[in-house]
Amino acid sequence: MGEEVLAALEEADAADPARAARRRVRRRRRARLKAAALGRSRGGLTSKVHLAAERRCRPLSFVLTPGQAADSPQFISVLRAIKVCGPVGRPRTRPDAVTGDKGYSSRGDRAHLGRRGIRAVIPEKADQAANRNKKGRRGGRPLTCDAGPYRDRNTVERLIDKLKVWRGIATRSDKAPESYLASLHLRGAIIWLRSLT
What we know:
By secondary structure, the protein is an alpha+beta fold. The chain contains nine helices and five strands, in the order ααβββαβαβααααα. A three-stranded antiparallel sheet has the order 1-2-3. A two-stranded parallel ribbon has the order 4-5. Helix 1 crosses helix 2. The model has no long low-confidence stretch (mean pLDDT 81).
């Protein structure tokens, strides 16, 4: 089936060279956008910063993706990027608990946290609770969400406000994703240094 489609496309391109040129331009444009970590969203071409923060609004990790990327699939990659160095030994990569909103309550995210021994402070979505209740006893226990730490989930939003004080981060004036990520890390280092003094 796939070979037949490719053969049909090659025949059409051979018959119409202008069409082949348009396809090449589209392919190059997609490759450039992917290399620049830009993607389509409602506002046009954008990129999205996924990050982890600790309770005092200090950044722990940054992951840059195209604008159309959802938050929940990036959850594990953000957690893997966390490395907190102590005075001696290896850097700490596993937090005691992770707080998130209902968008991160997927089964895969919870399973990952459970495998690593991290306490999840993430409420259950209403449709997930309804599906669990529909299964009866086979649905399992209701998920618990500690209300005290859950109140601190706004630290990420407050950190984003601190990051956006730099106009270059707020508007993403850097074209290359490496330089944009470097400016995020630089601003994060400044936030850490100011909190230590």
